[in-house]
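Slide 14.
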Amino acid sequence: QVQLEESGGGWAESGGSLRLSCVPSEPMFNPEEVGWYRLAPGKHRDLVASMMNGVPLLYNDAVKGRFTIVRDYAKNAVELQMNDLKPADTAEYYCKMGAYWGSGTAVIVSA
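Slide 15: predicted structure.
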């Protein structure tokens, strides 16, 4: 069983930046597909960004031009650089690597 450890969540002001990171417990675990999802209060869990074999695949329209998904093979991590944050980005963020999910990290953006 692979566990995913997320970090980097927290509080930011509108227009600010945060960088999320997700690292698997197994150093040799290297799935082809990785991604970030988010769950906002009262909404369904949405895809934020996905990547296949190190190439960005999809971005949610709401984050295009502001968020960037990054695969750091040296750290075996998948990261999400979030710039120009908006209150609408407030959510619990989950990473997914292959078939495994992280437990989530909270992002709160104040107006």
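Speaker note: The mean pLDDT is 95.
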